[in-house]
Amino acid sequence: MKKFITPFGELSSPQKWISLLMGILLVWTLLPNSKFPPLHEILLAFPKLLSKNDLVGNFLTSIFFCFKCMGYATLIAFLFFGIAQIPLFKEFAALCRKFRFLPSVGLSFLFMRMTGEVGVQMTWIMVFGITTYLIDAGVGIALSITQDEVNYTKSLRLNAWQALRELVIYGKLADFFQIVIQNFAIAWFLLATVENICKSSGGIGVVISESAKYFRLEEVFAIQILILLTGLGLDYSLNKLKDFLFPYTTLKKTK
Question: What sign does the CA torsion over 232, 235, 236, 238 have?
Fold first, then answer.
């Protein structure tokens, strides 16, 4: 027990899990019972959701929708990332970085007029919301290249397009991949809101909405926990993929 309370102490992996569970139980115990459902009711809500709300089907629908929108957003942001150092597009790319202040859901009427289909509208609202943050971070990475780095490529007798390829596309690709990983959190944040626009398409957001409508808070919290755990799992998997694709970004300790 002394290890858990000693400052600057190191815990083993099992002890870290124990400390995490202790922290969760402590916080949940201190929460007002009249406002938050007990922990055991949240755990019992999972079988109910599986039996009557097709939790698995709706969850898979949300996963597919999220990855599809993230794919579109990544391609668009990568284009801006690649052209940010070209003078013709530089100021426009810098302007697009400010679009992150626009609420994507508030533009739903515009996407409806452009597409005419609710399903397509949902997709582009989601893509717009993710892309604005990806463009902001991606363009920022591309513009972080210093003049000294550019001068170094000139000393290697590279022309301007070769320098763009080496400094931006190759040199900063790992950083761009990292912001894609980080912005999966934005995608999860927008997911439930966007799915409520078209409830007939299903999704985890629809299940949350239905549970909240009838004030079944234990089900709402159960779904939120599921979303959180899935997000953590995706984050871990994508970081491992990054380590595999860009091994030079990970500094290993030498014995």
Answer: positive
Q: What is the 3 state secondary structure string of 33-77?
A: CCCCCCHHHHHHHHHHHHHHCCHHHHHHHHHHHHHHHHHHHHHHH
Tell me the domains of the chain and their CATH numbers. 51-248 (1.10.3720.10)
Q: 3-state class of 245 per DSSP?
A: helix
pLDDT tens, per residue, the chain with 255 residues: 666 677 767 777 777 777 777 777 777 677 666 567 777 788 888 888 887 767 888 888 888 988 999 999 999 999 999 999 888 888 888 888 888 777 666 666 666 666 667 677 788 888 888 898 899 999 999 989 888 988 988 888 889 899 989 999 888 999 999 999 988 888 887 887 787 776 667 788 888 888 877 778 888 888 888 888 888 888 889 888 988 888 877 765 444
How many Cα atoms within 13 Å fall on the side-chain side of residue 144? 11
Angle at 10 between CA 9 and CA 14, to 5 degrees: 130
